[in-house]
Amino acid sequence: MFISSYEKLRKQLIDNKTIVSLVRPSYHAFFESAAVPLCTFIFMNKYVNDADAKYFYLDDLGYTDDQVPRLLDGI
């Protein structure tokens, strides 16, 4: 999503949708032997000004066993 070819998509999402939640797990959250950069997000299919979104950055929590309980606590 950071490369320039996605600029139009980013603008459309920001201008016309609302981020409800975004979770960014660590690179090793699913495969201990591989670094996989990913995130998951939920959008509301309309724009809501001043919406209260939830963002979770789990990079410091290690592997899956540590991240899932911490994410559930945050939710």
Question: TL;DR of this structure?
Answer:
This protein has 75 residues and is α+β, with helices and mostly antiparallel strands. The chain is 28% helix and 21% strand.
Structural description of this entry:
- This protein is an alpha+beta fold and about 80 residues long.
- It has helices spanning about 5-15, 65-75; strands spanning about 20-25, 40-45, 55.
- The mean pLDDT is about 85.
Note the topology.
Blueprint: H1 7-16, E1 18-24, E2 40-44, E3 54-57, H2 64-74
Portion of residues in beta strands equals: 15-25%
Largest sheet: 3 strands, mixed
**N-to-C series of helices and strands:** HEEEH
Rg value: 14 Å
The overall average pLDDT, rounded, is 84
Structural class: alpha+beta
Please list the strands of the largest sheet in the order they lie side by side.
2-1-3
Main features:
75 residues; alpha+beta; three-stranded mixed sheet; 21% strand
